[in-house]
Write the structure tokens for this entry.
Amino acid sequence: MTTQHFASAQAALAELKRLVQEAKAGDPFAPVTVLVPSRASALDIPRYLARKSGSGVVGVRAFTLIDLAIDLFAPSPEASGRGLLDPMIRQGALTASLARNPGVFKEVADQPGTAAALTRTSSALDGVNVDASASLPELVPDVLRLNDAAMTALKSAYFTEAEALSGAAKLLLSQPGALDQLGTIIGFMLPEGQGPSAEHLLDTLSAAGMQSLAADGSVRGVDSIYSASDSDDECRAIVRSVAELLGSGVAGHRIGVFYSASDPYRSLLARRLDEAGIEFSGPSAQQLRDSPQARGLLRLLQLDPKALDVRAVLNTMAEGSVHWSNNDLPSAAACERLYLNPPRDEEAPESDVVLDEESQERKARRLAELAQFVSFRNALSGGLARVAKASSWAGAAAELRDFVQEFLGPRSASEHPRVSAARAEVLEIADSLSLLDGVAPAPSGGALRTALEQGINRRSGRRGKIGVGISVGTIADGVGRDLDVVILAGMAEGLAPSKVREDPLLPDQIKVELGTGLPTAEQRIALTHQQFLAALASGSRTLVFFPRGNLRGGGSYEMSRWISAGFEDPKSVVELRSYEHGIRTGAGTTNGLAPTAQEWRLRSCLSGKRNELASDDSVLHRALEIRHDRHHGAFSRFNGDLSRFAGSFFNPAKAISPTSLEDWATNPFSYFMKRVLKVSVFEDIQLELQISPIQRGELIHKALETFVLGATEGGQASTEQDLTSIGEILFQKPENSAWLGHLWDRDRSRMLADLRRVFAADQRDAAKGWTYQQPEAGFGPAEYGKQYQHESVNLALLDGQEIQFLGFVDRIDRHESGAVRVVDYKTGGTSRFKGMSQADPTAGGKKFQLPVYGLFARSLQADTAVPVQAQYWFVSQDADPIGYAVDDAVLHQLRTDASVIVSALHRGIFPHKPEESSFSNFTNLAGTAGAKHTWQRLSKTSELVSLAILKDDK
């Protein structure tokens, strides 16, 4: 094929115009066929001729080579009754071939990736004549055999692109009238290396008189080269350049932006152009595979209907794609809370849970929501099971459609069009699966999901109309275009050229030995370079951009060898400042383009000039106020000063638990979140590999309570064997199937050892005259809905106000002398309680359980002179109990410290004092470093410095 070369696409277009005029000189209706590299180019050519040619465009048709081949071949008798082969059908046939005789693929024949890899190789082999006499590795003959078997099975119903190309060449040779219909044939900027069948058709057209035109650009013709700090800054700079060009009068449809790699440029460019309000045509930022509807469906189809992974379901719900059409469903956040912390019909007594009327209503609502969530999970399992049990592809397609409509349907009639379009595409792909009946083996769960996923991945979402707005696409999309300005993005080594991998099933060496004519990896890189040079020629003006840093993987980039090899003066590369620099200085990131109003405001924010901001932007002003107050430690509404709502946070008529006072003393902000806003921090115990400390404590408490109850009320024997038997029953099997067996065995042994340790301590105390009096004694208002055995206990504060306490003590003992002892079990360490003593019973106003429990025990005695002790027992350590005698001095200290906290609650003081804990808390959720930074300054303010309780222990 002889090709006439030009220095630019504009020169080649001028020659094209001359050839068209020449062809139509005697007949304005004479047919002219122009072969082009892309469908975008196929639209540009008639528009160019309509503008420039005086002979008109009637009879001028522009095709890509494959579109021309299908246009010629599809109506022919050879293609009668057959359709173009879809990759999904090809993979189904290859899967069937693997199932019948897998050969060397025996061990991996059932893996979806095997059929997918064979499908890619099969597509490359279309129309290739293989030298069967060649000596080949064991793998290759099986690849060829499986491909031949699949293609033979499909031949009666489908044709491939290679067959259309070959069939079109044959038709042109056998039917001279077909050539007459094409008229004058002109090849414009056609790429090389399209495969043997394409080359055969091009040779046929050349022999029939096709004239070929090409333009070869040069790096020396590039007007400007820019480097940006990373791909994101690069895209920002490109959009600024486009805006500058539009402002200078260049029409949008005369500008093209073409990138070397879809990742990350496809989404980055689309987002930045949208933000700038610049209309464009090209790949959209979000492809179908990126939509929540497609991702959600594929994620759900991975689940086992018999053992539903609720965590995966919750993750899908959090994306907003799940909507149960048949019933109401709580929000994704509510469902996650229900899963992590399900309510029970009979709540276990907990000292810090108050079930007043409002709490009872909340609990009833949560129980109803839990029932809804359980029903949804059961329905979802049933839907997945029906899809998995489908015996045919048509049946599976129908079940998939029902499943999508039931669980991924529209939330409202006013749903966003983009969401509706994504769902419609997914349903269209699901319906197409029925075509696999008779081609692929009966559907299985994995095969069904793989076929659906590949159908989704092949959908390339586009937006806009070619010729309206700027053109965006890959470098290949920039070849053969009629443009004034071409901008190339991502021209860095590693992106241009990107790494090209050999086909593992058909390596380059085998391609050469078989005489396939298929390009090797090295040849494919050379073809990509040709496309780059052709794209350079498409515009009258060319701008090149490349990133200096890798946005995703870290490290740095160098200028592409394609640029540096032909660029004479590397010093002329313009290094663009980063976007951040432009914000801080107000300087544009490209020459002459002024910063936007938003960027000016951001600059003012960073400089602290709040008075220059828009006065009506209250959200921004509040954000700046938060930033200022937290950085400087000002005690304001954003750092816990809610004094303007004083009196709203504490009701002395409602009983409180001693741990609520401890919560405030530890971190007043945590108290506000948990006690006022009712926000909890959940540990996701479902993902733990072993029992959590909280669960461990609950089990040990339950075992000891059961044992003491039997000893005091049931008249049962109180032996170590009795206690360990209770433990063995409670610790019989793990509550969570995710716990590792060997870790559970270890924890179970340790818990039984803890019980024996407690029993040994009880025996020593029994020898000293101590006996059990009552297990798990509760005190609190009867109207709160719990089985409190005793009334709440009252404490008069220093200002005369009286507060009520409620709670549950783990055990009450009595000495033969009449003395009483309150015991509270602790399954953790002693470090948090070492500051407690007879002289400092509240550990500086931070621990209130023991003095309140002692106050409760004293209230039970008719004689107030009876000695009362309160102790923490550390059941998991060989440690002495921590406690003291609860005398008048202890109660006075309790009254003093409780008065400080209650006064602070009344005044609305809730600063964030950082918590030191390995468990999840509001400090590490909010950011420990930031909280400590703020507290260092906040604790020195006049409002807080007087609160000694909040001082650090150090």
Observations:
- The first helix runs from residue 9 to 23.
- The chain has 34 helices and 22 strands.
